[in-house]
Amino acid sequence: MTTPRTDRSPWNWLLLLPIAIPLIPALFNAVEPRLFGIPLFYWLQLGFVLVSVAATLVVYHMTRRAR
Amino acid sequence: MTTEIVIFAVLFLIVSGMGFVASRWRRPDDIASLNEWGLGGRNFGSWITWFLVGGDLYTAYTFVAVPALLFGAGATGFFAVPYTVIVYPLVMIVLIRLWSVSHVHGLVTPADFVRARFGSPTLALLVAITGIVATMPYIALQLVGIEAVLKTMGVTGDLPLIIAFAILAAYTYQSGLRAPALIAFVKDALIYVVILVAVIYIPTQLGGWGSIFDAAQAKFDKTPAATDGILLNANNQLQYVTLALGSALALFLYPHSVTGVLASKNRDVIKRNMSALPAYSVLLGLIALLGYMAIAAGVTPIGTDVNTVVPQLFDKMFPDWFAGVAFAAVGIGALVPAAIMSIAAANLFTRNIYREYINRDATDAQQASASKIASLVVKVGAVLFILLIDPQFSIDLQLIGGVIILQTLPSVALGLFTRWFHRAGLIAGWIAGMGAGMLMLYNVANPATHHDHFGGSAFALSKLGLDTKMTIYAGFLALAVNLIVALLGTVIAKSAKVVDGPDATRTDDYTADQGDPRVHDLEVTSST
What we know:
Order of helices and strands of chain A: HH
GO molecular function, one term (chain B): transmembrane transporter activity
Number of helices of chain A: 2
Distance between the termini of chain B: 52 Å
Helix content of chain A: 40-55%
Oligomer: heterodimer
Number of helices of chain B: 24
Membrane topology (chain B): Multi-pass membrane protein
Shape of chain A: elongated
Number of domains of chain A: 1
Keywords (chain B): Membrane, Transmembrane, Transmembrane helix, Transport
Structural class of chain B: mainly alpha
Radius of gyration of chain A: 17 Å
Radius of gyration of chain B: 23 Å
Largest sheet of chain A: none
Main location (chain B): membrane
CATH superfamily of chain B: Sodium/glucose cotransporter
Largest sheet of chain B: 2 strands, antiparallel
Subcellular location (chain B): Membrane
Strand content of chain A: under 5%
C-alpha cells in the first residue's frame, strides 16, 4: 500500500513492435520467396502473429503482479 | 440441397433452443432486472468471458465479408490480418486502464467514463449515441452473413433478411446475454471443425496453395481495374495501412468490446487473454484465403452479391451434409456476435440516455424493458443500413461503423491517458470529425451497385484536390480532423478561460487492481 502502483514498465515498449511492424508494407509486399506455394505477402503477415503473441506473452509475464 | 437445409435447420433449432434454456441457466433470481438481462449477472467465469471476447473475431465478418473482399479486390482484403495482430497489444496498453478506473468508480460503459473524467453530460451523451449508431452497421454485417447462407440454400427474395432478423430479435429478447454466452461454446466448436476441414481439404482439391494463388493472379490480371491484384500497389498501400490501424483503434471503442474487457476479473486476466487471442488471427488469415479458393474453384456469386462466394464455395466443394454443417456454423457465427452487440448497445441506451434523461427513478424492471426495446430498435436500424446503403462489399458496413466509432477516440482512449483536453474542445472535435467522416463517406461511390454515395470507406485523395490516385480509409482522415479541432478547441477554450468540467478520477485510479480497497466488483454498482 505504501508504494503507489504504476503501469509504467520498460517492457511495455515491446508492445510497439507488433503494432508497428504490420504497418510497413515495404516489408512484405512481394510474391517471392513463396512458402508452400503461398506468396510472401500472405505467409509473412501470418508470421507477424507470432511476433504479437511473443511480445504480449513476455509483457504479461514481466508485468504481472508479484504474488 | 434438401440435405443442406435439413442439417442447417436442425442445428439452428437446437442452438436457438439452447438460447431459450439459457434463460434459466445458473438460476438468475430475476431476469427482469437489467443486470441479469444485459450483463448476465456478471458472474461469468473467465472462461466464458474469454469466449465472449474471442467471439468477436469469428463473426460473419471473418467468414463472409473478408473472403468476399479478397475474392473481389485481392490483397487489400488481407488487411484483416494486420488489423487483428495490432489490436491486442493496443488493448493491453489502453483498455487495461479503463478496467482499473471503471472498477474504482463503478463505470460500465465508455460514456460513463467520459462523464466521470470530463464532467460533461453532453460529451457523455454524444459518446453514448455514437456507440449505439456505430453498432448498427456492424450488426447489419452479421445479418448479411445469415442472408448469404440462406440465399445459397435457395431461399430467395427479401425472405432471407426477414428470417435473419426475426431469429436474432426473438432470441435476444427472450434471454439476454445468457443466450449468446451459452451458445458461444457450440458456435466455436462448430466453427473450428468447419475451418480446419475447409483450409486443409479444399486446397488439396484445388491442386495446392500455389495454384490457388496463380488462379487469383490470373483473374486479377484480366480485370481492367488497377486496384486489385494479389499484391498491394502504390495507390492502395496507404489505404491498407490506415484501414488496419483504424479498424484496430475502432474495435476496442465499440460498446461490446468494452463490456467484454470490463467483465474480466483483474488486470492480469486481461493481459493473459490478450496474449492468447492473437493466435486466432492465423485462422482468420486462412479463412480470408477462402476468397482465393473460391476464385480457383471457379465459384461465381449469386447475382451481384459477392457475399455469397464462401457459402457457394462450401456448396460446391463439400458433400451436402457437411455443407449444411458449415452453413449452420456461419449462421450461428453471425447470430451470436449480433446478439452480444445489440445487447451492449441497448445497455448503453438504458444507462446513459434512458436513466440519465428520460426516467431518472427507473426501477430495475423498467430498465430491463427499456433495454429490450432499445435492442430491437438497434436491430431495426441495422436492417435499415442494409436496405439504404447496400454497399459493394459487406465489409464496408463494418468500416462505416468504424468511421463513426473512431470519433470517440479522443475522449475515451486519449482520455485514459491525459486530462489535458477541454470538454468544449472534445465536443467541437467530435462534431468536426463526424461531419468530415459523413461527408467523405457520402462521396464514396459504388460502381457495382451504381450508387453514387456511401459505397464504401476508401476515400480518394484526389477529391481533396491532390494529384494522386491514392486512397485512404475515411475514418482515419476524419479522426485526424477530429484531433486537430479538439486540440485547437482546447487551446482556445483554455485561453478564453471557459469553465471546464470537474475530473472525478485520480491518477492512481488508472492502475488500481483487484485487491485494492477502492476496487469494487462491478455487479454491485451496476445493479443500482
